[in-house]
Design goal:
By secondary structure, the chain is an alpha/beta fold. It has one domain (6-267): 3-Layer(aba) Sandwich (Protocatechuate 4,5-dioxygenase, Chain B). The protein has helices spanning 21-33, 71-75, 84-96, 111-120, 139-149, 169-174, 181-195, 199-203, 205-208, 212-215, 223-232, 260-267, and strands spanning 6-10, 39-49, 52-55, 101-104, 128-134, 157-163, 237-241, 245-246, 250-251, 254-258. The strands form 3 sheets. The protein has a 6-stranded mixed sheet, with helices on both faces. A two-stranded parallel sheet has the order 3-4. The relative contact order is 0.23. Its cofactor is Zn(2+). This is Dioxygenase. Keywords: Dioxygenase, Metal-binding, Oxidoreductase, Zinc. It comes from Pseudothauera lacus.
Length: 270
């Protein structure tokens, strides 16, 4: 199998599972166009640990790590198998690069993983394993983490960073659904930096981008973008997938990173 691109996806609110909207349709199109992966590796801010952990369960359960939503959400399952072999390979790469890492045989898939995968691979027929985000991660470490995982792309693993292009829960509670201008300003700045291959700007987006502190009062939903970008950066090409804006404050854009041929093949899903 030729190498795969890497992806960043905005997983939005848990209700994204039931109401796909623009972003869900776009992810479904991308999933249909991608070469079939041997496995999907997902990093989500909803699994943060002191040191890196890699899920090695052969059948990871679906975790409903949210409260107060409609009953139908809690009935959903994403019954994809795990891939202990490739998860072990990820552990080996991380350990060799100097990361403190442990295998986790019981951890399941949190909603940052299974909700977007419901749209990307709705048949749950591609094995999935999850890698945690270290609590002490910063931009430089997130980039290094992506670079460490990048060789897995040539082994048929789709590296997916799942976060949110903008993520301000206070605004989520108080905006009453009205679009907030800063969401588009921040998102457009990040998209321009990615399109230009301006990795230094991307690394410092939370310092340089307009309204960065409002877009990300805390950084954990931004780090998966850096991991995914670094995992595919050597290919030199990227494509933004417009996912629209949910609830006025959650930018749902996704990005594909890889070689020009890999990105062009996915872009043809439009």
């Amino acid at each position: 199998m030729s190498g795969l691109p890497s992806l960043f996806v905005s997983h939005g609110a848990p209700t994204f599972a039931l109401r796909p909207g623009t972003a869900g349709a776009a992810l479904a199109a991308v999933g249909a166009r991608l070469p079939r992966p041997r496995a999907v590796l997902v990093l989500s801010p909803h699994w943060q640990t002191a040191d890196l952990r890699v899920g090695t369960s052969a059948q990871p359960p679906t975790i409903h790590d949210f409260h107060g939503f409609e009953a139908a959400l809690y009935e959903l399952r994403y019954p994809a198998s795990g891939h202990p072999g490739l998860a072990g390979r990820a552990c080996g790469l991380l350990g060799a690069a100097g990361w403190a890492v442990q295998a986790d045989e019981v951890r399941g898939l949190d909603h940052g993983a299974w909700v977007p995968l419901l749209h990307l691979f709705p048949g749950a027929d591609v094995p999935v394993f999850q890698v945690s985000l270290p609590l002490a991660l910063d931009a430089v470490a997130a980039w290094r983490l992506g670079q460490t995982l990048a060789p897995l792309r040539d082994e048929g693993v789709l590296v997916v960073g799942s976060g949110s292009l903008t993520h301000n829960l206070a605004d989520f509670r108080h905006s009453r659904g009205a679009d907030q201008p800063y969401v588009r300003e921040f998102s457009a700045w990040v998209a321009r930096a990615i399109a230009a291959g301006a990795h230094d700007d991307l690394l410092h987006a939370l310092e340089r981008a307009p309204a960065a502190l409002r877009a990300h009062p805390t950084a954990e939903h931004f780090w998966p973008l850096l991991v995914a970008a670094a995992a595919g950066a050597a290919g030199g090409s990227a494509w933004r997938i417009d996912g629209g804006i949910e609830y006025g404050i959650l930018a749902m854009d996704a990005f594909v990173f890889g070689t020009a041929a890999q990105v062009d093949a996915v872009r043809a899903a439009r």
